[in-house]
Each structure stands twice: as C-alpha cells, then as structure tokens.
Amino acid sequence: MAIDSGYIDSAYMQARLPAVFVDIKERAQQSCMPLLQALFDHVDDALFEMADKADSNAAQNMYFESMREVRLKRRGMELTFLKTIDEAFYAVVSASPQTSSEDEISAAELSLVAHDQLEELMASSSLVNKAEKAFMEPLALIMARLNALLGEQQTLSAETNPLGPTVICKAFVAACETLETDINTKLVLFKLFDRYVIEGLGAVYSACNSYLIQSGVLADASAANLTGGVAKASAVNNSASEVFSHLQALLKAAPHANANQQAIGLQATGEAPQIPHDSLMALLQLVQHQVAHQAAENSAAVQLDIQQALNSLCMERMPGQALSIGQVDDDTINLVSMLFQFVLEDRNLAAPIKTQLSRMQIPIVRIAMQDKSFFSRGGHPARKLLNAMATAALGWQEPQQLERDPLYKKIGAIVDNLLEGFDNDTELFDDILADFTAFLELERRRASLIEQRTLDAEDGKAKSELARAAVKQLLQDKLQGVDLPPAIMTLLQDAWSNVLFLISLKEGQDSHAWTEAVQVVDDLLWSVSAMSASDDRKRLLQLIPGLLNALRKGLTQVAFNPFEMNSLFDELENIHLAQLKQPLAEAAQNIPTLSPQASEADEPAPSVNTDVELGAELPIVTEPAAVPSPAQPTSADELIQARGEQTLDQLLEGRKQSAAGASNDELMAELDELDDLEGFGEDSDTAVAEQSANTVATHSNHRVDQLAVGNWLEIVQDDGSKLRCRLAAIIRGTGKYIFVNRAGIKVAERTKAGLAKAVDEGEVSLLDDGLLFDRALESVIGNLREMKAQGSS
Predict the structure, then answer these.
(1) 737-740 and 764-766 strand pairing
(2) Please, which residues bridge with residue 267 across strands?
(3) Mind listing the pLDDT tens digit for each residue in 522-569?
(4) How many other CB atoms are there within 10 angstroms of residue 100's CB atom?
(5) Side-chain half-sphere of 729: how many Cα atoms within 13 Å?
(6) Residue 701 and residue 456: Cα distance in Å, rounded?
(7) Strands 746-750 and 737-740
(8) Higher pLDDT, 514 or 259
(9) Under the phi-then-psi rule, with left for phi > 0, alpha for psi from -120 to 50, and beta for the rest, what region is 186?
(10) pLDDT for 174-189, tens place per residue?
(11) What is the maximum alpha-carbon separation in the chain?
C-alpha cells in the first residue's frame, strides 16, 4: 500500500496512536530486529558464494561491490524497515479512509513495469503467500484483536494489517530500494529475508498475541473460528492475474519461431480461426490419455511437445482446416512447457523420477489453463503435489530393482492416477496429496527410528574414542621417561588401561572412581621405583595390601583373564620382595627408577619403549614388551654407534668443526649443502604454492562450516559412483560428519578435513532442497529475460 509522506506527517500531528497500538508496534519491531540483523549477518557469506560461482570477473566485482554497499547502508535499511511499519500503524488509526486503488495496477501500467521490478514483485508475492499460509491462525487472531481495538473506525484486511506479511515484505522492499545494485543481488537478499525473517515470524506473532491477551483483547478468541474467513479473503485478494500478465509480457518480448509453416493444421495465434477453450481442453484430455497408454512403452525422460501433439490431433480429426490457439491458452502452454524443461534438466532429481514427473505435463497444463493462480499461489494443490514429490525424491537413488522401490512405485501410481482420472477437478490433487503425505509420514517414521539408532551408535562410538584417547594420553604422560620391568608395562598397558577406559566411559574423568584409578597408577609406579630411605620401605609395606586389592578389584570388574592376572601379580610380588630385601644403595642402582624428564640439553636415557598404543579394541598389547639388557643399545643413535657409524647430530657437529678453519665462501657453501640435505631451504615457488593451497583450504572449510544438519549432498565415491546422502549429525568431540540415506541408514562418514578436501576437489556438491516449482519459475523468468536481451541486441 503506497502511503503519501505528507499524509503521514499530518497523521503524526493530528492523530495520536492509542497506548495499546504503541506497545504492540514496539513489541513487533523489537521482535523483528534480531531476525533482520541475522539476515544482514549472513549477507557477506551469501554474496561471496555467488561471487565464487560467477562466470566472469565483472560479475564477481559486482557481488563484491554489493557486499560493500550493503555494509554501508545497513543501518539506513534497518531504519527504513522500521519506518515503513510505523507508517502502516499510523495509517490504520488515521481517520482518513483508505482506498485500494493505490494497490491496483492497470493493464496499461502493467506493460510499463520494468522486468527487474517484476521479479521483485513476484519474489515479494511469493514470500507473502508463504507467510500467510504458514501463520494463518496467529494472523487471524491478531487481525481480529486489532479490529476489536479499532471498533467501527476501520476494518483491517490482509493487506492493511500492520503486522501482516504484506506490510513486513513491503517494508523490506522499501529498504532494498536504497541499494544501487542489480536484480540478482536483491534476489539473494530476498532469499535471506525468507530464511531469517519470514521463517521467524511465528515467534513475533506469538509475542504479539500474548501481549494482546494480557491486555484483555479477545482473550477467549479461538483460531478455529477465524482462520476460515482469513483464508477466503486471502484467496480473493491474491494477485494471480497480475503475475500471469507479467509472465505474458516477458514471454511476448522473447523471440520465438513459428513451428508450423503449412497452411493447414495448427497455426500461430491470430493467423487462423481460434479453437474454442472447451474444445481445446477436450483435445488436451485426448493427449493426456495417449500419454497414459504410451508410458509403459517409452520410459525415457523426453519432454512432450504439446503443440506438436495438438497439431497431429487437429490434422487427424479436422483435416484440411487451419486452426489456432488463443493467446492466453498458448502462453499458458508455453510457460508450463518451460517449467517442465527445467524439471527435466534439474540435476537434483534422478532420471527415473524426472521421467515420471514429465508425464504430469498435460494435467498441469489443463489446471493452469483453468486457474491462473497456479502461477502465483504457493498453496495451489497442483504445485504442492509437484513440490512434495520432488522434495521426497531429492535423496533418492535408482536401485537395482527399480520396479520394487516403494517411492518410485508410489510416484508412478500417482502419475497414472492423474492421467487416467483428472478431469479438470482440482480436488483430485488434494486427495492425492493427502494420500502421498500419509505415505511420506510412514516412511519418515521408519527412517527416523533407524536414523536415531544410527546416531546413538555413533554417539557411543565417539564417547569410546574420546575415552581411549584420554587413557592413552594419561599413560603416555605417566610413563614418559620411565624405565619399567616388562610385567609393570603389561599390567598398565594391557590390563589397567581397560579399567581406566571403562571408568572414563561410564562415570567420566571428573568422577571419584577416575581419581582413585589414576592414583593406583601413581602408587604402582612409585612402588617399583628406587627406595632411597628406610621410611620408603615402611610406606611400601603399608601400600602393598591396598594396592593389590585395588588392582584385583578393578581387573575383576573388567573381566580380565584371571590366569594372566595371577601371573602378573606373581611377578609384581617378586619385584616388591626385591625392593624390600635389597640394601638401599643396591636398590638405588639395580631397581628401575622414575627419572625426571631430561632437559633438551641432556642426552635421553636408554629406556624401554613406553609409548602407549591404544588400538580400536582393548586390550591393546598381546605380548609384554621385552626389556633390553644393559649391554644392548636401546636407541637409534646407540645402534648406529654400535655399527661404527656417526649419528646425524655427530655428522653435523663434525662438519661445523671442520668448517671453522675454512674461508667464508667455503663455509657458506658447506652450510648451504647441509641445508639442502636437511630440507631446511624453501624456494619462493613452494611458498606461493603453499599460500595458494591455504587459501583454497580456508574457502573449503568455510563451505563445510555452512553445511547444516538435513542438507542433502552428492558425494563421488572412490569407484567413481555418486552417492546421495543427508547430513544427519555432526558428532561433538570427534567432529565427524555422519551421512544417512533416505531410509536413515548410515552410508558415509567424513571428518571436517576430509570433507573440505573433497569439496576442494569437486567430489562433494550440495543438492538444492528448495521447492521445485519455485526454482523452475525463477529459472523461466531468468531465461526469458536473457532471450529478450538477445532479441533486442
């Protein structure tokens, strides 16, 4: 609704907004602002993605400039949005009568509307229809309560409701008018507005209704008594004829050739007597029956040429006559044909599904010819059915036994039912849609149960992996730099690691049981270390009974092999007896010690390999590691020295000493040679390559971060086949991405790094889960604009 600024200024002065209206307006604006801010927060990402897909530098620069302009004008756009809502509220309470003539566009004016404005109008109209359908009940309650406040002063409609989708969408359109960008950027903004604002209006309307109830305005009103009237008013006031007229204008401007050059048969519009509308519908029904009978013989996804089919019927039934189709009917046929051309080219659908959907072309043409709201009303039964079938088949893959697949059979039965039973009755689409929705709900429940079991199993697996990692890290920290007998190593790595794992998994690492289990590790390591004082022996005598009881209790709980446990305890007993019998000095020399970690300047002490390798299953080590004898070399450097060879450190040291007396040139040459040997040098090409790789990796990671649970993807597998799957969950802790098929069965698992690499290599692509008809209509409009531009050049 266009509102004159001068009129509004006077309304500010002459009319005072009632307190309840002020409060409800402010609450609505405060609820809308976080949604609008979320939209602007995602503009850069959306435009950057569009720039990344651009096929020219000019297009990329345009998107980058648009990003900058949106940032600069963001605050002004927010204020314009709020001001438009303010104006709608003041217009409602104004005493001046409001007419609807300002909202109407005459046929003469319609032809003068720019194509960019057309696309904005259609995008806005689509959002309004979507919101009115989604929030029918809360909108009905809000409108009834606002009308109750107004009394006999004025009655609100869907267009004048200051909290309705029409006003909110117009507020955003007004905000976008401040941008000096092309239509593509604005369409991106409209998509973001749909995602972040329109979908969030439910919370806005809930807050407004709650406040009005608290204020005592129709507190007992029921939505059931109000929604019928609102739905009826919405149907009366939709802009079906306007949208279709815009499409006709685009279609007329695009160049097209006349397929029939003969003097008989079907001619171009206006060049021969026109076929009456009823007769044309009857001819289309004959074509529909032909398609139904030919479907079993020809399963290829080939688009039907309706004009050619009608021409054949005319030649057969009225030979020697020249006929033509009326302009409106001809435009309808052409538009529907272009829509189905998009369906057949859509990469998101598998070929067998596209074959079935293509057979719906005649019923869709017939219903579009009798009801032009098909092109503008998102809730049209035929559109809803087509969208539901395409959405259900988004992740569908052709099985080996196609005819036994439940979804394929169901879609085939629906198409057969339409071809055989549709006779211009739209209720058939409603009945079929209800049946298909029930079928999908049953499939969804089955898949949901399987998927939940899959996710529960993955969650348990992730917890196990984290518990294993925690145990591995703990034992590595405890055993690093420690020289231990084989029995102790086996006891810790093979046996007690299971106890730690089970406690971490069931009770967590903050539990008292975990603290006690870790203390057992510390006590065991201390009990086999060198005793330097007599008090240590006394403490050992007091420690041994409790330590053995704790070890036996823990190992029994994890069902450790009792024979192996007794054998390990016998060896532990011998070690403890040796600790108690030996003199202190001898014990200090012969008993393994807990040595402090060597500093970087010291040579590492020879030791048994104490790295704990926890595998996928516990226990991890099947045989205890052998302790090398004191005379044997236990490190790589000692093995080299035993063979009379020099270690790398010694080699480097010898070269540096021999270079001390050489000239500077010789020294630099020697050091350069050494750098090349050790790989320390890095040329500029390598640095540039790494920088480029890092940039690509960052972009790939950014695209992976944008994935949301529920997104459908197509993944190229190792054998080259393509797998369609849905992101079911991102497991916290491990960061793994779990993918399932339509049945909820796990079919793929990826890490973030692996997924980013696959995205970078083009092995992963995101499937578009937008409504099929909406995407097709956008594509048709875009193609018509291009055709018009080519025709005028």
Answers:
(1) unpaired
(2) 324
(3) 888 888 888 777 788 888 888 888 988 989 888 988 888 888 888 888
(4) 11
(5) 18
(6) 27
(7) antiparallel
(8) 514
(9) alpha
(10) 999 888 888 888 888 9
(11) 125
